[in-house]
Specification:
By secondary structure, this protein is mainly beta. It is 10% helix and 35% strand.
């Protein structure tokens, strides 16, 4: 009996081995060829490598990598005007550093090479309350200590939106300045209301002295009333600003929202949101010359050296209009380089509910003329059906050639030069701008991160 049981077990084992082998044969119709399958389009069904998180959520928001290898591994300085926060995060939405702010964000907060913030903040009681209101400019140390505070807020003027550090250590800031309804009518404006045109001031932080200034009010033209000031042909004077191009009840006719400084040529770029243009002025002109039409390296005083984005704003039928609400003109290279390309975020592409980022190649020299195409060439652009913010926003070029886009009411996108989206971040804030810093950047090292 023992031998019979042994033989029966042996025969059963042989049968089981043969059965399994047959059912795993490469010719089985129920089992795909593993070699051939690796060459098919079914790779997406294979398990993904989970050694790194491609998606995730933190207290700041959610992130998603679409191509981690193509994304830059850096930090982002986040200006969250919705929550009045300024902080640094990494690409996995981890909070790396945050500053305590004394006041609400007046929009721009920028990280300097010494690890300090240059911040445009709201005044304690701002008197001019348009979007982007400010009234206070500060240097803030990494622990939140205010190292310098400059108040510029009253019924008659208020700094707003943007400020920038110059190579000489001074600060330039945007300013709304009040003009009464009587002054507006005398200047040739069509509505009898108070106006708030743009100005630029330069402040010496060592003394709090305003050492230079420019006023748009000194460089106007209007063809509405020949008995009033500034009367002339708009089309024949592209160097001047048409006072009546914008009719708006609250008087915020220009709504400048950004400045950029060109160290090579000593020019200041002003983003005028409601004229849908960028204006360029000559910072080399003295304050006295800047109030006139001669002087400075350009010999144009404070008149516009160049303008682009909307030729309709100066009655020019030549050149294509590109801008419908524009934010954050900035050079793709560093301020001190000869790179003439500039990125700008246009909130409404062709006046639609879709945004676009343009890279523009500016002329090597400016020769603004009437009756010609003065617009720069578009050398790169990015848009997407999901990219839309009616306000704020911007874009900066990264060291690896990608572009970091701030979509104000969403978060951030990172895209390659070929338009591939490689990373996104979505948060619950209202994002004014995002600035990218490599992890070995001087600003990051100065913070001790």
């Amino acid at each position: 009996m023992k031998i019979e049981k042994f033989l029966m077990c042996l025969l059963g084992s042989i049968f089981l081995i043969v059965f399994v082998a047959c059912n795993n044969d490469e010719s089985s119709p129920n089992t795909p060829d593993p070699i051939e399958d690796s060459d098919t389009d079914d790779d997406d069904d294979l398990p993904e490598d989970t050694t790194e998180n491609d998606t995730g959520t933190t207290d700041l928001g959610s992130f998603e990598f679409f191509n981690r290898d193509a994304a830059e591994d850096g930090y982002i300085l986040v200006n969250d005007a919705g929550n009045n926060r300024a902080y640094i995060m990494d690409k996995e939405a981890n909070l790396v550093h945050e500053w305590a702010l004394s006041n609400n964000i007046g929009n721009d907060v920028f990280l300097l090479s010494n690890g300090k913030l240059l911040a445009s903040l709201e005044a304690d009681e701002p008197k001019i309350k348009f979007g982007g209101q400010g009234g206070k400019v500060q240097f803030i140390d990494k622990d939140g200590t205010i190292e310098w505070n400059f108040n510029y807020s009253s019924e008659d003027y208020e700094s707003h939106h943007d400020a920038e550090l110059l190579p000489n250590g001074n600060i330039i800031a945007m300013v709304w300045e009040k003009k009464t309804a009587e002054e507006a009518i005398a200047a040739g404006y069509q509505m009898e209301i108070d106006l708030y045109p743009e100005a630029i001031i330069e402040i010496d932080p060592a003394t709090d002295e305003i050492v230079w200034e420019w006023h748009a009010w000194d460089h106007l033209v209007q063809d509405f009333d020949d008995t009033k000031e500034n009367f002339g042909s708009i089309a024949d004077n592209p160097q001047l600003i048409d006072l009546n191009y914008v009719q708006i009840e609250n008087g915020d006719i220009m709504h400048g929202n950004a400045i950029e400084y060109d160290e090579i040529n000593d020019h200041i770029y002003i983003s005028s949101n409601f004229y849908h243009e960028v204006w360029v002025i000559d910072h080399s002109a003295t304050t006295e010359e800047s109030a006139s039409h001669t002087g400075g390296n350009s010999n144009k005083g404070g008149d516009l050296v160049y303008r682009f984005g909307n030729p309709e704003a100066y009655d020019n039928s030549f050149g294509e209009r590109l801008f419908y609400n524009n934010h954050f003109p900035n050079f793709t290279g560093n301020h001190g380089t000869s790179d003439r390309n500039m990125l700008i975020f246009v909130n409404r592409m062709n006046d639609t509910e879709q945004s676009v980022v343009y890279e523009l190649q500016l002329p090597s020299t400016f020769d603004l003329k009437a009756g010609v195409n003065n617009e720069p060439a578009v050398v790169w652009s990015f848009t997407d059906k999901d990219l839309f913010s009616p306000k704020v926003s911007g874009a900066v070029r990264l060291d690896n050639g990608n572009t970091l886009i701030t979509e104000g009411d969403f978060g951030f996108w990172e895209v390659t030069g070929k338009g591939e989206v490689v990373w996104k971040f979505e948060g619950d804030g209202f994002f004014w701008r995002g600035y990218d810093f490599p992890k070995d950047a001087p600003e990051i090292i100065a913070l001790g991160l």
